[in-house]
Every structure is written in C-alpha cells, then in structure tokens.
Design goal:
The complex is a heterodimer of chains A (209) and B (635). With 209 residues, chain A is of the alpha+beta class. Chain A is built from 6 helices and 5 strands, in the order H-H-E-E-E-H-H-H-E-E-H.
Chain lengths: 209, 635
C-alpha cells in the first residue's frame, strides 16, 4: 500500500512537463523579474489637511515617498510627534537581499522550465510559498514594531497600534490605507502559474525510450 | 403701525431713475448710460450677478488680478470673478507678513528706501501674448523698476534709481517679446542727477528721458539699455506697439508748456500736448552703432542728432492714457481736459514719417501733422483717462470726471459713423466714483480675454462699512461679454491701485515649496546634525534648522557687542508649512517658506536673555517652537 503510494509519487515527480507548462514557467520567471521593479505595497494616509494624501510605496529594494519623495519626510515629521522611529530605507535589511531572492526564484522557474520535471515545480512551489509566508510575517512584524516601539518622551502619547496591512483604519486624524500593488500581484501570480503548470502536465507520461 | 411693502416696491421708482439719468445725459451729451445693473440684486438665482461672481469654498477663481498698490509699495493679488484678495507681494516696502525687508537679501533689494510708489504693473510677453514669467512694476517716487517672478510670486530684482530718469511714472510697458521694459520720466530734473540748477531755468536746464530697460531673456535680469533725451515735458503714460506698430512705443505728456510752478494752471494753457512716438528698435540699434553718448554710466541718445528714433505727435490737452489696440494699428489717446478720445492710425503715422509730413520740430524732433494721422475724435464724455480693448473691436475708456466707463467701437467706421462719432459710442456704465485706470485682461496683448473689466475707482465715498476718514479704494467688476456692460461686484483695497493686469489662472503654475534638490543657497542645511554655532572674533554665525516644531539650535549664547549672523533653513517640503523667526526686542521677524534659506544679521547692543519664537503658526506645538538668545554683558 505505502509502496504503491511511493511509486505513484515517484512517477508523479518524474513526470515531464509539456510545452504549455514550460511557457507558464517562463511567465512565472518574468513575473518575478517584474516584482523586482514594480511597487509591492502602498501605504496611503489621508487627513483633512492632507486631502491629496501622503503616499509611501514599498519596493523590493527601496522605500519611495509620494510627491517626489517628499511624503516620506512628511510622514516621518508627523510620526515624530507620537515618537515613532523614522522610516528609513537603511533600516530595511530585506531591501538588500529581496531582489536577489526574487532572482533566485526566477532562476528556479527557468530551471524547472528547462529540466522539465514535475519535481522542480514542487521545489519551486514549496520554497516560494514558504518564502512568501515568511515575508508577509516579517512585514507584519515590521508594522507592529513601528507602531509599538514609541518613544515615551514624544510630545503626544497614543495607544500603541499596528498599522493595517490590508485595507483601511483610522489613526488619530488620518485614515491609513494599505494595499498590495502590481509587484505583489506579480508575486501572487507565481504560485498560480506554478499550479497551472502542474495542472497542464498532469496527464504527461515519460516518453518510451 | 408700520406697513411692509412688497419687495418690488422698494426698488427705485421711475422718478429716481430719471433723476439719475438726467445729470448723466447733461454731462455726456451723448448716448444714455446702459441699463443699470442694480436689478441684478442680491439674489443668487442662476445668471444673476451673485451667481456669476460666486466662487464656492474650495473652488478657485478663473483669473489672477495683479493690482498695483500705489504708495503702499506693494502689489495685491486678487482672484476674478470673486474679487477676493488672496495675497500681497511686497515690492518696495517692508512687509512683516512675509518677513520682506528683514533678512539680508530683501534688505539689499530695498536699498536705502523704505517705500515706493507702484503704478503700472506689466506682465512679460512672448510674441505679443502673456508668457506668465514675470510681472514688472515701477516706482514713481524713487525711479525704480522691479521684477516679480511668477514662479514664486517674489520680488527678485529692483533696478534703480535709474540714472538720468526721474519720476518713473511712464512705466512699466513691456515690448512684445519682453525685449525691454519701457520707462519715461514724469518729473524732469537737471542732468546728470545731483546737479543743481535754478528751477526758474526749467526750460533750459531740465530734461526728461525715455528709457529702454533691457531684460535678459533667460533670467529676466534688467539693465539700462538706452535712453533718449527729451525736452522737460512730463511724460505720463505709454504703451508698446505690435503688428504694424511693432518696434514702436508711445507716451503721452503733459506740460508741453515747460512750466515749472503752479502747473495746474501753467501747464494747461495749450490745446495740445505732445505724445512721444519712439522707434525703440532704432534706439537699440543707435546704441549698437555707437551713436549714443554716456551720461552717468548709461548710453544716452540725443534725438536731434540721431534721426528716426523720436517723433512728437500732438494730442488733446493734458492727456493721460495712450493705448495701442490688440491689432497694433489703432492708438487711442485721451486728454483729461477734453471730452474726447483721439484715435490715431499707425499706418498713417508711418506714412507721415516716411513722407516727412511734419508741422515743424521741437528741439530737432519732428512734429507729426495731427490731421494727417488722426482717424477720429470720439466724444466719450468728461475726463477720459485710459482705454482698454476686448479684442472684439471694442474699446473701453474710463471717464474720471463723469465717474463712468464708455464703450465704443474701434475703426473702421462707416461713413455715417464718421460723420457723427457719437454713433460709435455703444454703451456707458456708471462707476463709483472717479475712476482712474481700468483693465481688461490681456488688453495689451494680441488676444485679450475680453470677459471682465475692472474699474479702479479713486473714491469709494462710504460705499463700505465706515472705517473712519481714511477710506479704501473701490474696484468694480464689470461683465463685458454682452452688448451692454453689466456691473457685477465691487471690492475695496488698501491704497492705492493705479493699474492692474489680469492673467488667466492656468497661464502659470507657481511652485509651492522650494525644492530641496534645487537649493543652491551657500548656507542651507537640511539636517539637524549640520546645525552649528561658530564664533570668529566678535562674529557669531549660526546655521539653524526650522522644522515642526523646533529650531535647532534653540539656544544661542553671545556677548554684548557681538555681531550675530543667523542662516535659517526651513527644511519642510510641504505646501504651506511656513515658519518664522522673531527675536524679542531685536526688531527681527524673518519668515521662511518651505525649503527656503534666509540670512539675518544683527548687532547685539544690549545684555539680557531674549526669547525667540516661530511667528507663523505651523503646527499643534507651534507655541513650543521657541528658544533663547542669551547675551552676556561686556565685562
């Protein structure tokens, strides 16, 4: 019984990939390249005196304020009143290795497309899901820390809070909205493409040699 | 018991209307004034005057109105059609509101003068249209011209006192590609300035001057390009040519009699005064050809020796405005003391010059034959001062004595109209009271906006809440889109708008912060860690950062007798995040716009501890934005 299972699994993992699956993997590699350059997340703050809003875009390798970078200064200026640590790109060690990590996944996708085995797809899919979960967890922890490690000597004392990651919430006079952007959509596409590649090659058999 | 009349009964009855019309008819001797707009009333019904001038909260006006501030030395910025005052641009006078005249840079701009007399603002032009780069204004009192940069609405240059030029009233008139800002002297003096002569020898010893102030096309820097020496007439107002009159400029004068005292009587004896017809391109060429002589450091052309640069044209008695129409062909000059506007045809002027159709000369300057170049004298009414155009073939002349604006038709006229020029007067509207200048947006360009006319009235005579004897000026907004002019609104300003310019709001896109990236100020610092206090001998130099809600440093220690220099950078890059630095009992109030660096310098004369604080409310902790200047006494 177990032997049969292993055998079926072995055959599954050795299953070759069809042309459609390989093209899907190329698309996944392209999506990963896109994620290096496209914004992953956007945090937007709106208040009566900031009707046009303050925007912060998070990329794999940089933190960009809206309005030519000015919004980042403005957010930090406002945050100093509640004792929040200034947001600075230098504090995000992730930004030095994230593009590299995306590159590794891109190479894994190309490798899977080239080697053409189901097992490479499994490697890619599992590692990527793990990596994504880790990154989102890390992002949440970042947000939590910024909202909780407040300077007790700050002019204004507010209840520690966690900036929202998905959706909107009200913080003092600001409505904070946080949503994934095109880069994150590219990343979300990767597991979908990998799953689709698996599905497309579900009926493939080893060629007779 | 009091009875309540239905609303229509409270309107002026026929008798009241007749009473208002009769004096106007008697005075003007021509068409009755247009239907009064008083019926537009206070209602906000669609199409009413109220609805047409209503700019809802949060909405913006369609046009800028740049008023000259007269002897306040400033320029006022209002919006049209709301007439709301939006901002004041200090030019020739200190203005604590923006810290103008308190920091080293603006102190240097003001020089030795604490005020100026701003008369005629002029927008820069490219190809005969407003290009939205600069606004030039003149100082009638101290013979200066200033340039306001419309990128940031700040005065960036004050040129003058201009050598050999006195009483800079005949200014500022911009040529069609802003090659020059043209300037003429209202008050003649012995030249070069600084020379004494007996005013009784006025005719012999005094001279007037017409000057071309050259404008650098790249950055607007002004310098004296050329001057033309004239007899001591009092040059009054001018305009520049375009189209057929391209390269020419015109000024009226009063006092062709060359009287020097009791001018009210002595300068009003002749039936005509002279206008100057100046070929400014030829003047520039004459200087390049070495035909000018240097007087007080600038090239001066003697017109008798350099033919072709200056002609005189007789115009009716004591004229004020001389305005070229948008086509550049028709020139309207009006004599304050004759109830007509004289319309000249520049093509005829050109022809008269070419065939030397002169009636003589004054000090070697040919006098053009009036009859040869006149198209017609239009009996507009009493006290015609100044004319503007709507670009649709109509002209609008302010009538000072009559307190009205006359609308009339530019040539070409039919034979019937020519025979009776009363027929070209299309409409008249009362204004309140004693109108000086009027402005139609873009009247001095090839394409006027032709929508609104603003009447700048010299007297308001209690049409506002009483503020005591010192009364404001009144300005009235008139709709000129219809056949009849329609009074829409009135507003009051501080003294004293003489003229204004109207600019379409979307013609410019001013900055709202000085970008950090573009800052080239040698003393700018952008980070608190670069703040410093350095002593060199008896001079203490501070580099300070202003940011919500701190000055860094917020303590400065000096000794009595020290020289204190503070460079402050407002490191904010957010719209409207303005800070100020006032030092108590030191007469210091410097304001910094976002991204701006300013330097202030003061001699420390007394010991003590002097608080300094932010003057421009910046944030919830604005009050806390303060520090101390601690001065140790001399030991």
């Amino acid at each position: 019984m177990i032997k049969t299972l292993f055998s079926r699994q072995y055959r599954f993992l050795r299953r070759p990939l069809g042309l459609a699956s390989r093209l899907l993997l190329l698309a996944a590699a392209a999506a990963l390249v896109g994620a290096v350059f496209l914004p992953l997340w956007k945090i937007h703050l709106v208040a009566p005196q900031y009707r046009e809003g303050l925007a912060l875009r998070i990329y794999a390798h940089k933190l960009v304020g809206g309005n030519g970078g000015q919004d980042l200064h403005e957010i930090n200026t406002l945050n100093h009143y509640i004792g929040m640590k200034p947001l600075a790109q230098a504090d995000f060690a992730e930004m030095t290795w994230l593009p590299f990590a995306f590159g590794v996944f891109g190479l894994l996708a190309l490798r899977a497309a080239f080697i053409g085995r189901m097992q490479s797809l499994v490697d890619l899919g599992v590692l990527f899901v793990y990596f994504t979960a880790f990154s989102l967890g890390n992002f949440y922890l970042r947000l939590y820390n910024y909202g909780h490690q407040l300077d007790p000597r700050a002019p204004m004392t507010i209840e520690p809070f966690t900036p929202v990651m998905f959706g909107s919430q009200k913080i003092a006079n600001f409505i904070q909205t946080s949503l994934p952007q095109s880069g994150a959509l590219c990343l979300a596409l990767v597991p979908v493409l990998v799953a689709a590649a698996m599905w497309c090659s579900r009926g493939e058999t080893l060629p007779e040699s | 018991m009091k009875t309540h009349l239905p609303p229509f009964m409270s309107r002026p009855g026929p008798a009241a209307l007749a009473a208002a019309l009769v004096p106007a008819l008697l005075l003007s001797g021509c068409n009755p004034p247009g239907a009064s707009s008083s019926s537009s009333g206070k209602s906000g019904a669609p199409g009413s005057a109220a609805a047409r001038t209503w700019v809802a909260p949060g909405e913006k006006d369609e046009y800028y109105l740049f008023y000259s501030g007269g002897h306040s030395g400033q320029v006022f910025v209002a919006g049209l059609p709301s007439m709301r005052h939006i901002s004041t641009i200090p030019v020739f006078s200190p203005y604590p509101g923006t810290g103008y005249g308190f920091d080293e840079e603006t102190k240097a701009l003001l020089g030795d003068y604490a005020w100026g007399d701003v008369h005629h603002p002029a927008l820069s032009q490219a190809d005969g249209l407003y290009d939205g780069r600069w606004l030039f204004v003149n100082d009638n009192a101290n013979n200066r011209v200033a340039r306001i940069d419309l990128r940031d609405f700040k005065t960036r240059q004050i040129l003058g006192p201009i050598p050999n030029s006195s009483g800079n009233h005949g200014s500022s008139f911009v040529t069609e590609n802003t090659e020059y800002v043209l300037v003429a002297s209202r008050f003649s003096v012995p030249l070069p300035k600084g020379r004494h002569a007996d005013p009784a020898d006025y005719e012999k010893e005094f001279n007037g001057m017409v000057s071309g102030i050259k404008v650098d096309p790249s950055d607007g820097t002004m310098s004296v390009g050329w001057q033309i020496l004239t007899p001591p007439f009092n040059w009054d107002l001018g305009s520049t040519g375009k189209g057929p009159s391209s390269g020419w400029a015109f000024w009226t004068s009063y006092n062709s009699e060359m009287a020097h005292e009791t001018l009210e009587a002595t300068s009003t004896q002749g039936d005509r005064d002279y206008a100057a017809v100046v070929n400014w391109r030829a003047a520039g060429q004459a200087v390049r050809d070495g035909l000018a002589t240097t007087l007080d450091g600038v090239p001066v052309i003697a017109p008798a020796k350099v033919p072709g640069v200056l002609y005189f044209l007789p115009v009716p008695k004591s004229p004020h405005g001389i305005d070229t129409d948008p086509s550049g062909r028709w020139i309207a000059a009006s004599g304050k003391l004759q109830p007509v506007v004289s319309v000249f045809d520049f093509e005829k002027i050109k022809a008269a010059i070419d065939r030397k159709d002169f009636t003589g000369e004054v000090r070697g300057v040919p006098v053009i034959r009036y009859e040869s170049v006149l198209e017609g004298e239009i009996p507009v009414g009493l006290g015609p001062l100044h004319t503007q155009y709507d670009g649709k073939g109509n002209a609008y002349t302010s009538l000072y004595i009559e307190s009205a604006v006359a609308k009339w038709k530019l040539p070409p006229w039919t034979a019937e109209e020519k025979a009776d020029l009363n027929k070209v007067i299309l409409d008249k509207i009362d204004v309140h009271y004693n109108i000086g200048h009027l402005v139609v947006g873009g009247s001095d360009t090839k394409e006027p906006y032709g929508k609104y006319l603003v009447a700048m009235n010299k007297l308001s005579k209690g049409r506002h809440l009483s503020v005591g004897p010192a009364q404001p000026e009144s300005s009235q907004l008139i709709d000129i889109t219809g056949e009849k002019m329609e009074m829409l609104y009135e507003a009051f300003t501080e003294p004293e708008p003489h003229f204004a310019q109207i600019l379409k709001a979307d013609a410019i896109k001013p900055i709202e912060v000085y970008p950090k990236a573009g800052s080239a100020h040698p003393h700018a610092i952008w980070d608190a860690k670069d703040a410093s206090i350095t002593r060199r001998g008896n001079t203490v130099e501070v580099k300070m950062v202003a940011i919500r809600s701190r000055f860094i440093p917020d303590r400065i220690d000096v000794n009595e007798g020290d020289e204190l220099v503070i460079h402050v950078t407002n490191v904010e890059q957010t719209t409207d995040m303005i800070h100020g630095l006032a030092i108590a009992e030191q007469n210091v109030n410097v304001i910094f716009d976002p991204g701006e660096t300013k330097t202030l310098r003061l001699k420390i004369k007394k010991p003590g501890v002097f608080p300094f604080y932010c003057t421009n409310f910046c944030s919830a902790l604005h009050q806390e934005m303060q520090g101390y200047l601690a001065v140790k006494p001399k030991s």
